[in-house]
């Protein structure tokens, strides 16, 4: 029995001869299977068991920041004959057999040029851009609905009316700023999700002050407050979930 430790972002190639009859169980963190064509495969969480023989998986990688561990058992002839094709009915049964054997350790550090960090950053940025489009759409529709019920969006200073395209552009700009903050925190912070939520909520609260200072009528001020909260309700949960998924 072996224990494979994958540090954050680490990748280890699957050698067919070593995994011919081996059965693995993720005991800590998460492990992602890398498919034959290099594309990312399924992510296995704690207590997930797997065989690799004949699957076409060419590598195991840790998509998170914490060290992941996989316990690997290569059953002997007796174990194979006295059990089914999948010899372990449960994780605990396999743990009992493992504990009766000598444990050897293998530690895999981050692979040169394949740490997985660029992939995580690109994935977060992609999620953020999709969320930005959703926030722009939702906010513009909300502004159009407000106009339909009589909100004029007129700001006394200058006597100008805020146009719908202006609402979409401002929403898109500040949503992209939020994505940049999230990417930066994923890159440099040890707790990116928590820090992002704290930062985004604080900035949202600050953004609620200008409508009160605009001098607009009550309906316009109320609508502007709502238009600040709509994109926040889209962007903050989406980016926070994405950050958590990439740091587990």
How would you portray this structure in words?
The protein is of the alpha+beta class. Helix 3 packs antiparallel against helix 4. It has seven helices and eleven strands. The strands form three sheets. It has a five-stranded mixed β-sheet, with helices on one face. Strands 2-7-4-5 form a four-stranded antiparallel β-sheet, with no helix packed on it. It has a two-stranded antiparallel sheet with strand order 10-11. The chain is elongated, with a radius of gyration of 26 Å. The protein folds into two domains: 107 residues, Jelly Rolls (Sandwich); 131 residues, no CATH class. It starts with a strand and ends with a helix. About 16% of the residues have low confidence. It is 49% helix and 18% strand. Keywords: Membrane, Transmembrane, Transmembrane helix. This is Integral membrane protein.
Task: Give the structural class.
Answer: alpha+beta
Q: Considering DSSP H and I runs of 4 or more, what fraction of the residues is helical?
A: 40-55%
Q: What value does the Rg take, in angstroms?
A: 26 Å
Give the CA-based shape: elongated
- Listing every helix as H and every strand as E from the N terminus to the C terminus, the arrangement reads EEEEEEEEHHEHEEHHHH
Distance between the termini: 26 Å
Mean pLDDT: 80
Largest beta sheet: strand ordering: 6-3-8-1-9
Low-confidence stretches: 77-115
The DSSP helix count reads 7
Strand content: 15-25%
User: How many separate domains make up the residues?
Assistant: 2
Largest sheet: 5 strands, mixed
Count every beta strand, where a strand is a DSSP E run of 2 or more residues.
11
InterPro entries: DUF6069 (IPR045713)
Transmembrane segments: 124-146, 166-188, 195-213, 219-240
Keywords: Membrane, Transmembrane, Transmembrane helix
Biased composition (Basic and acidic residues): 86-95
């Amino acid at each position: 029995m072996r224990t494979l430790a994958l540090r954050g972002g680490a990748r280890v190639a699957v050698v067919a001869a070593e995994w011919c009859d081996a059965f693995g169980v993720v005991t800590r963190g998460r492990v992602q299977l890398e498919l034959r064509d290099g594309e990312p495969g399924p992510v296995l969480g704690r207590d997930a068991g797997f065989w690799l023989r004949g699957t076409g998986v060419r590598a195991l990688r840790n998509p998170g920041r914490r060290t992941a561990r996989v316990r690997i058992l290569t059953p002997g002839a007796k174990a194979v004959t006295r059990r089914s094709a999948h010899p372990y009915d449960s994780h605990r049964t396999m743990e009992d057999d493992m504990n009766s054997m000598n444990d050897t350790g293998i530690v895999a550090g981050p692979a040169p040029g394949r740490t997985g960090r660029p992939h995580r950053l690109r994935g977060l940025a992609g999620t953020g851009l999709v969320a930005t489009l959703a926030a722009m759409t939702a906010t513009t529709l909300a502004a159009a609905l407000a106009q339909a019920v009589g909100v004029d969006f007129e700001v006394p200073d200058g006597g100008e009316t805020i146009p719908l395209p202006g609402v979409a552009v401002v929403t898109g700009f500040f949503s992209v700023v939020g994505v940049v903050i999230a990417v930066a925190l994923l890159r440099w912070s040890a707790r990116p999700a928590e820090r992002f939520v704290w930062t985004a909520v604080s900035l949202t609260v600050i953004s609620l002050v200008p409508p009160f200072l605009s001098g607009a009528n009550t309906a316009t001020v109320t609508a502007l407050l709502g238009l600040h909260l709509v994109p926040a309700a889209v962007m903050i949960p989406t980016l926070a979930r994405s950050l958590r998924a990439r740091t587990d």
